Amino acid sequence: MSAESPYRRVLLKLSGEGLMGTAGYGIDPERIREVAEDVALLVEGGHEVCLVIGGGNIFRGVKGAAEGMDRTSADYMGMLATVMNALAVQSALEAQGLHTRVQSAIPMDAVCEPYIRRRAIRHLEKGRVVIFAAGTGNPFFTTDTAAALRAVEMNCDALLKATQVDGVYAADPKTNPDAERFERLSYTEVLARDLKVMDAAAIALARENRIPILVFALGSTGGARAVVEGRGRFTLVS
Ligand code: UDP
User: Fold this and answer.
1) Contact 107, 76 (CB under 8 A)
2) What is the per-residue pLDDT for 4?
3) Is 161 annotated as a binding residue?
4) Which atom of ligand 1 is nearest to the CA of 105?
5) Second label for 162, Cα 20 to 30 Å away, from 4, 22, 182, 218?
6) Per the domain annotation, does 1 fall within a domain?
């Protein structure tokens, strides 16, 4: 591991949308391969890595509910979508030669391990990449909150939030090119200014447990490792 990196064990949060590449839906194999290459470089750098993956590229509970479905059923569908993404990413990580485990918050014995905290920690200590699927296992939550929760449970040194842009901006830089970009923010500023970093429950959990959040654009090979080792472009929320 690089001597200057204070982040040995990290949790990487990927949104489901980040897996769909240029397609408007589903899983883009090329995009997943890029993500897997980035994770492999992180592991090569001596970092212990776990992942939480969203499901928004397949199904979102809020949308299902807006279309008339019972909200809890729709949320369970969203959680199942994250399991599909987890299996796709697991397969891509294994193609990079990494050892992996998927642990689901909703037990699914034939498909993956159930979430067991101590077992997950053991996997990380052995250099395996652990993918946490099915969010928190509870409706009315998000995978952002699941990411903060698992990062705390795994005693992670940092939570890496991959987004479409290279940090946190005061407004969407895609529609507002003059939007201010922040190098550093406090958790309280993020909450007070309602900045779109992660949802409020996730920020509050990270604040309470003092886990720094590094917001960056996942896309370039080696991007995640550069960020963890302090070389890349990111916004630090701490
Ligand atoms: N979800 C849930 N509980 C959780 C995590 C996720 O009910 O703990 C459901 C929720 O319906 C959500 C969907 O799973 O819309 C997909 O997760 P999310 O929207 O967080 O995915 P992302 O936006 O990161 O792709």
Assistant:
1) no
2) 65
3) no
4) 8
5) 4
6) no
| Residue in the block written with tokens 């992670």 | 156
pLDDT at position 45: 95
One-letter amino acid identity for 235? T
pLDDT score, position 21: 79
Q: With a cut of 70, which residues of the chain have pLDDT below it?
A: 1-4, 220
| In-domain check, residue 90 | yes
Domain that holds residue 211: 9-237
Rounded Cα gap, residues 102 and 86, in angstroms: 7
Quick: pLDDT tens for 74-110: 999 999 999 999 999 999 999 999 999 999 999 999 9
Ligand 1 neighbours (beta carbon < 6 A):
15-17, 54-56, 60-62, 75, 78-79, 81-82, 135-136, 138-139, 141-144, 146
Question: What pLDDT score was predicted for residue 64?
Answer: 96
Matching residue, tokens 């960020």: 227
CATH number at residue 171: 3.40.1160.10
pTM (2 decimals)?
0.96
188: in domain: yes
Contacts for 115 with CB less than 8 Å, ≥ 6 apart:
103, 104, 105, 132, 134, 137
Structure tokens at 10: 């990290």
- For residues 60 and 186, give the distance between their C-alpha atoms in angstroms, rounded to a whole number: 29
Amino acid at 160: L
Report the first-to-last Cα separation within the chain, whole angstroms: 23
- Domain assignment present for residue 4? The answer is no
Describe the chain by its helix, strand, coil percentages, rounded to 5.
Answer: 40, 20, 45
Ligand 1 mean position to 61 CA, how many Å?
A: 7
